[in-house]
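Please go through this chain and its backbone structure tokens and walk me through the local backbone shapes. Keep your notes short.
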Amino acid sequence: MKQAFEFQEQENLVVVKVRNLLSEFIMRDMLDEASKHMKQGNYNYVVDLSEIDYMNSVGLNFLLILKSRAALMAGKVSFANPSEKVLQLLEMTKLTDILNPAHSLEAAIAQVEQ
């Protein structure tokens, strides 16, 4: 069974590959892992949602909390490859402009590196 998430450090950022974002426990584990990376000076993140078909409020909370925590440290967060259902959820909750999802990993990385 694959892990629910994976953090991969790159040169100027951390890519978070998300496979499951429906559980409060997973969200806490992901935020704990992000905190470890932030303590090491990594404040820029790209969250790859390509393996997520849909998400609930737990997923939205994770995205907002990570973005908020990174911003406190002058970091940036971008989100890549949201499914159509995830995009619909962002539109319904009026979070599209705040979270600014990108349609590819490369575009999300470019957003963070600006």
About this structure: Residues 24-39 form the longest helix (16 residues). Residues 80 and 87 are 11 Å apart (CA to CA).
